[in-house]
Inverse folding.
DNA sequence: GCATCATGCAA
DNA sequence: TATTGCATGATGC
């Protein structure tokens, strides 16, 4: 043994916790609500420390029991804030991690972690062993000697300061022997060590440079003049008590010696399982990679390993492919592996096929040119199981090929069981539902710019085949769960059919008018240039207007405008702040206009240009398994956030046009979320208003303000409350929104809940349901889990409550339009209509309709939307047509 | 090259 | 200190 590492467990844990627990932060936690942020950061820190160790390591902890220091000084560590519950809960987890990682840990009643570390460090040092100590507590600096280096963690945990006798001298001009005396003289508010009042670091260093020790200082106490001398003489006892308190006991009676600290060899899989339990995916991946690298060293192979317990057959020619299709007419799982997430332009890397017993990797270029295989895909009699059916369907559409009869999709099933899987990959989803061992994508293909097929082909052949086998193996379990949760219909009658609708929409795409696009681009460029000049002129210098930092400096330092809110990195320059400043300086209106135009230019003009395909269309991708509420989302480009609220922005919609001889038809649900609320909460007066076809915001205003004639301001305020209620609003935010005092806002809310008392009841009931069950559900039994609702952190619990109230409303509205889409698509297909659904924007559908079907569709589309779901209030729609999207008002 | 922040667009 | 999203440019590692 030549080296020993000692870690102050409590101190590192504190740092780990507070590195991510700034006020207002959402702490990392598992889906069951177990906090993991400190564990995660602790493991990261330990990983760094372990890189520097040589096999001997120990982590020391404090105990909750009082120590000798408390006996000597009752006030020791008094006044310290209690450890937050979220951190306390994680201590056992950190200890469990250390066990699993084979790292020795120790705590001892009556002693602090400092004492354990000090004793072991000095023992080792006396035997000429090099010691590294890790902590964030400066007290430990007194341990520094020729063999002992102390590393202090800094705030962000990213850097360490290390102290040797030399560096201590450089920093304080004191020897390491004087560190105890330094601390004793200065005191330490965090441990409630008194020190000598009035003596801080500067004075303490000066005194020690002259007198070396506290003892010697008091020998010469009478030489010191002035107030300082008085203080020193008066507080002799405090100084000695402080010295006693800060002195680490380097002779603690430990039940083992420094020699018995060797790291134990461990089963990596245990540790991986532990991280999986805590849903610490990054750590799982890192451990898996480390493990692989070790194996790679052991086996001295030129590549990563393949899994010997998994077998599959390689199908690389037509004969074999014909054979297996001939032999397998039973249901099988099929997986298409793509080179990138955007399947509109992805390459096909491979196909996996499995019936649970036999699993195959099929060469994609063979498959796509093999008629037997293509017939198999489009055979309506043979069931197939997939993971992300829509991707396969769209890819095949681009290649003019078909696939039919998907009776199970693992991605959609997993999403219905747990809507928070949205951003996870195949492997993580698999590990949530089974213990099947399957590599992470990045282990096989690498990540970021380096992503690509590995040189060792077997590696990805196996990976792709394995995915197919996993789909098959998990099918029954997932279906069972869905059945238990009454969600089978949601999968089979809504989500899987919807995949086909969305595939058709994405593949159809939306035509772009290039001339209009270029024209708007030029107009915007010119206007932005002019604005830039005006802004620079007003500012007296050029700077990057798009940089909130630089803009903040100009506005609030150079021009001395009154700053409003701050962000955590500096001044806020958002539109609300600018709005308040707009009369203070002529630069402000220019900046506001610049912001608006720059947004339109970069996000909509440039952004959308980059997504146009060679057919002059944009082909978005609707993510069907992402949002926690059941809504869709749209990417590349996002066609669900095209501007509409300002005329300036709305013009962007002129870019999107119907094909020749076609019209765009837009139909949207009116007030669908309020109608859903009226239905599920059984809100009497709200239902009446809907029944009478009233302007809902107006009638709310009439009731809230006790008036017959509603001013436009009153209507606007009532509308804000109607919206706010759906989101679980608080008085403070409503006040911000409608520019009244929080008191008035609270009054509005109270009045509102008096008028619609069932809403209040609904909210209470929903929160109660979520608290008991951990989830809420929609009309069609879609679930959203809300672990935060049982959090002890106020803000998180409140967030949980708002989600509990909002998710069923937003989610049910999503259910309804999804059903409408499936119904409408089916009608169009069965009746051989040429009209096509091309977009969905949460409560509206946009179709591309040939001229000859226009009149029919104006009737049909709203009709189908209205009767998608039967509620106790009617669903109403409005409908518009135009040659471009702008004309759909 | 990648992650994070501030900002702003939609329902 | 209102719900759900996505894309952007700037910035820092």
């Amino acid at each position: 043994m030549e080296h020993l590492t000692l870690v102050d467990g409590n101190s590192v844990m504190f740092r780990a916790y507070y590195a991510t627990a700034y006020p207002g932060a959402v702490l990392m936690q598992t889906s069951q609500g177990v906090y993991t942020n400190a564990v995660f950061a602790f493991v990261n820190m330990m990983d760094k420390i372990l890189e520097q160790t040589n096999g001997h390591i120990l982590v020391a902890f404090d105990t909750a029991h009082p120590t000798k220091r408390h006996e000597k000084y009752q006030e020791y560590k008094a006044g310290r804030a209690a450890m937050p519950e979220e951190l306390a809960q994680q201590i056992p987890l950190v200890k469990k991690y250390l066990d699993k990682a084979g790292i020795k840990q120790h705590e001892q009643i009556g002693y602090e972690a400092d004492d354990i570390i000090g004793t072991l460090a000095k023992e080792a040092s006396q035997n000429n062993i090099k010691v590294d100590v890790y902590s964030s507590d400066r007290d430990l600096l007194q341990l520094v000697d020729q063999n002992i280096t102390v590393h202090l963690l800094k705030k962000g945990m990213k850097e360490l300061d290390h102290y040797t006798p030399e560096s201590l001298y450089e920093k304080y001009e004191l020897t390491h022997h004087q560190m105890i005396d330094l601390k004793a003289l200065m005191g330490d508010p965090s441990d409630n060590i008194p020190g000598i009042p009035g003596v801080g670091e500067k004075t303490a260093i000066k005194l020690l440079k002259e007198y070396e020790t506290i003892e010697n200082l008091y020998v010469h106490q009478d030489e010191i003049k002035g107030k300082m001398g008085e203080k020193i003489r008066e507080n002799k006892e405090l100084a000695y008590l402080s010295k006693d308190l800060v002195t680490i006991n380097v002779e603690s009676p430990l039940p083992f010696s420094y020699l018995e600290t060797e790291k134990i060899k461990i089963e990596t899989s245990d540790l991986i399982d532990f991280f999986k339990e805590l849903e610490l995916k990054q750590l799982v991946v890192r451990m898996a990679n480390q493990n692989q690298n070790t194996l790679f060293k052991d086996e001295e192979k030129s590549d990563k390993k393949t899994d010997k317990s998994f077998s599959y057959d390689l199908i690389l020619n037509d004969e074999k492919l014909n054979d297996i299709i001939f032999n397998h007419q039973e249901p099988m799982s099929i997986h298409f592996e793509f080179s990138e997430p955007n399947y509109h332009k992805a390459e096909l890397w491979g196909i996996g096929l499995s019936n649970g017993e036999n699993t195959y990797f099929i060469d994609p270029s063979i498959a796509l040119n093999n008629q037997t295989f293509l017939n198999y895909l489009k055979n309506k009699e043979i069931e197939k199981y997939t993971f992300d059916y829509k991707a396969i369907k769209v890819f095949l559409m681009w290649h003019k090929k078909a696939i039919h009869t998907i009776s199970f999709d693992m991605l959609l099933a997993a999403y219905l069981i747990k809507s928070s899987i949205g951003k996870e990959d195949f492997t993580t989803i698999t590990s949530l539902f089974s213990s099947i061992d399957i590599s992470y994508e990045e282990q096989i293909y690498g990540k970021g710019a380096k992503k690509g097929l590995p040189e060792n082909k077997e590696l990805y052949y196996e990976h792709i085949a394995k995915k197919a086998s996993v789909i098959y193996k998990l099918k029954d379990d997932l279906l069972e769960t869905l059945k238990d949760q009454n969600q089978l219909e949601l999968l089979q009658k809504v989500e899987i059919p919807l995949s086909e609708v969305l595939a058709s929409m994405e593949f159809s795409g939306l035509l772009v008018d290039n001339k209009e696009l270029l024209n708007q681009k030029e107009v915007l460029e010119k206007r932005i240039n002019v604005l830039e000049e005006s802004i620079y002129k007003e500012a007296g210098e050029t700077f990057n207007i798009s940089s909130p930092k630089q803009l903040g400096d100009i506005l609030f330092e150079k021009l001395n405008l009154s700053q409003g809110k701050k962000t955590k990195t500096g001044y806020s320059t958002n539109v609300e702040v600018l709005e308040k400043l707009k009369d203070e300086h002529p630069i402000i209106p220019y900046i506001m206009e610049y912001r608006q135009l720059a947004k339109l230019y970069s996000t909509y003009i440039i952004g959308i240009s980059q997504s146009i395909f060679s057919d002059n269309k944009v082909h978005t991708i609707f993510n069907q398994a992402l949002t926690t509420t059941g809504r869709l989302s749209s990417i590349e480009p996002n066609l669900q956030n095209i501007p509409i609220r300002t005329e300036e922005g709305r013009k962007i919609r002129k870019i999107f046009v119907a094909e020749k001889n076609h019209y765009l038809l837009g139909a949207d649900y009116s007030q669908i979320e309020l109608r859903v609320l009226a239905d599920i909460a059984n809100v009497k007066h709200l239902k009446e208003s809907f029944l009478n076809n009233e302007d809902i915001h107006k009638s709310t205003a009439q009731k809230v303000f006790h008036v017959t004639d509603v001013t436009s301001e009153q209507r606007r305020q009532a509308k804000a409350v109607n919206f706010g209620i759906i989101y679980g609003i608080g008085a403070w935010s409503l006040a911000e929104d409608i520019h009244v005092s929080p008191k008035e806002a609270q009054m509005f809310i109270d009045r509102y809940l008096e008028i619609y008392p069932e809403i209040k009841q609904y909210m209470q009931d929903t929160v109660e349901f979520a608290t008991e069950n951990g989830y809420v559900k929609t009309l069609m039994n879609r679930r959203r889990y809300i672990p935060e609702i049982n959090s002890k952190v106020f803000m998180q619990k409140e967030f949980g409550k708002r989600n509990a109230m909002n998710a069923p409303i937003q989610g049910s509205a999503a259910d309804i339009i999804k059903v409408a889409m499936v119904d409408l698509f089916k009608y169009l297909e069965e009746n051989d209509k040429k009209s096509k659904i091309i977009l969905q924007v949460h409560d509206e559908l946009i179709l591309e309709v040939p001229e000859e079907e226009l009149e029919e569709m104006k009737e049909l589309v709203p009709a189908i939307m209205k009767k998608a779901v039967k509620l106790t209030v009617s669903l109403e729609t409005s409908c518009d047509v135009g040659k471009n999207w702008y004309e759909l008002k």
In short: Chain A has six domains: 1-172+250-280, 174-248, 313-447+454-485, 511-657, 674-809, 813-887.
